[in-house]
From TrEMBL:
Domain Aspartate/ornithine carbamoyltransferase carbamoyl-P binding span(s) in chain numbering: 2-146
Region forming the signal peptide: none
Species: Streptomyces spongiae
Residues the record lists as binding L-aspartate: K82, R175, R229
Domain of life: Bacteria
The protein's role, per its UniProt record: Catalyzes the condensation of carbamoyl phosphate and aspartate to form carbamoyl aspartate and inorganic phosphate, the committed step in the de novo pyrimidine nucleotide biosynthesis pathway.
Gene3D superfamilies found in the cross-reference section: Aspartate/ornithine carbamoyltransferase (3.40.50.1370)
PROSITE patterns from the UniProt entry: CARBAMOYLTRANSFERASE
Matching NCBIfam families: asp_carb_tr, PRK00856.1
The protein, known as: Aspartate carbamoyltransferase
Length: 324
């Protein structure tokens, strides 16, 4: 593939190849020199029209670890505020010689448009578009689940068949939920979504997952529980649930976490709103993988960039280190 727009576009083999390559990339992070010369001479632009901490910084770290030249673009402070279009912005950047564009945009479909309009030749990677998709988040989440629930070495070449994953919270506005459902289904996991009816999208019945309104009943049957933030910024204030009522029914606290099987993990893509969907006690517990997910995001994004920009099967043991 030339682009990564949606988790739904990945076959099981594609996904496993990315996860296995990410494990090889993670081995590089264990070496004294963490940098590879692989993308020397290639240029990647990070084109962010929406705020980000984890995705933007981890893509930049991944690009630098692969020795790419990195251009960071943020809509704030750019000529976008003067009315410049996505097309003109992208073509302006491409005129500077860009091999790949990592784009986050508030409009669902913006990365697809960029990849398929003929405006630019560069590979396009979706870093989150509106309420639509966030495929590298789903990949790093699957990487984290496979490592924790199957094993770092035992997981190589494996999918997540039979693993029971519960995703809790704002499914309506959440591109993370949609991307995870797509990828987890492809990888053979059984997914249950738990949310208030007002935070489920129209057409949810056609998604390849179960729906529940009862978090307490679902927790004991989960291998991983992924808590999602309620996306206040995409919501009419009149429909925003109060923190108290939401956390009472759908928040994860220590008592609820105790209902999970001993081996089960708590996940969160971040940013977390402590006291709303997750208590500080849970967020800071050993069972919560939120920080591990961020670290895994660098290896996963290295794998995506490497494979999209033409890399062959990657072997960390024999890969040379970058000299500068
Ligand atoms: N998980 C995630 O996409 O976080 P950021 O919005 O900080 O990139």
């Amino acid at each position: 593939q030339r682009h990564l727009i949606s988790a739904a576009d990945l076959t099981r083999d594609d996904a496993i190849q990315i996860l296995d390559t990410a494990e090889e990339m993670a081995r590089v992070a264990d070496r004294p020199i963490k940098k590879l010369p692989t993308l020397r001479g290639r240029t990647v632009v990070n084109l962010f029209f929406e705020d980000s901490t984890r995705t933007r910084i981890s893509f930049e770290a991944a690009e630098k670890r692969l020795s790419a030249d990195v251009i960071n673009f943020s809509a704030k402070g750019s000529s976008v505020s003067k009315g410049e279009s996505l097309k003109d912005t992208a073509q302006t950047l491409e005129a500077m010689g860009v091999d790949a564009v990592v784009i986050r945009h508030g409009a669902s479909g913006a990365p697809y448009r960029l990849a398929n309009s003929g405006w630019i030749d560069a590979a396009v990677i979706n870093a989150g578009d509106g309420t639509h998709q966030h495929p590298t988040q789903a990949l790093l989440d699957a990487f984290t689940m496979r490592r924790r629930l199957v094993g770092r070495d035992a997981g190589l070449g494996q999918d997540l068949a039979g693993k029971r994953i519960t995703i809790v919270g704002d499914i309506l506005h959440g591109r993370v939920a949609r991307s995870n459902v797509d990828l987890l289904h492809t990888l053979g996991a059984e997914v249950t979504l738990v949310a208030p009816p007002t935070l489920l999208p129209v057409g949810i019945e056609s998604w390849p997952c179960e729906i529940s309104y009862d978090l307490d009943a679902t927790l004991p049957k989960s291998d991983a529980v992924m808590m999602l933030r309620v996306q206040r910024e995409r919501m009419n204030a009149a429909f925003f649930p109060t923190e108290r009522e939401y956390s009472r029914r759908y928040g994860l606290d220590g008592d609820r976490m105790a209902r999970m099987p001993e081996h089960a993990i708590v996940m969160h893509p971040g940013p977390m709103v402590r006291g709303m969907e997750i208590t500080a006690e849970v967020a800071d517990s050993d069972r919560c993988t939120a920080i591990e997910q961020v670290a895994n995001g660098v290896s996963t994004r290295m794998a995506v960039l490497y494979l999209l920009l033409g890399g062959a099967v990657f072997d960390a043991k024999n890969a040379p280190a970058a000299t500068h």
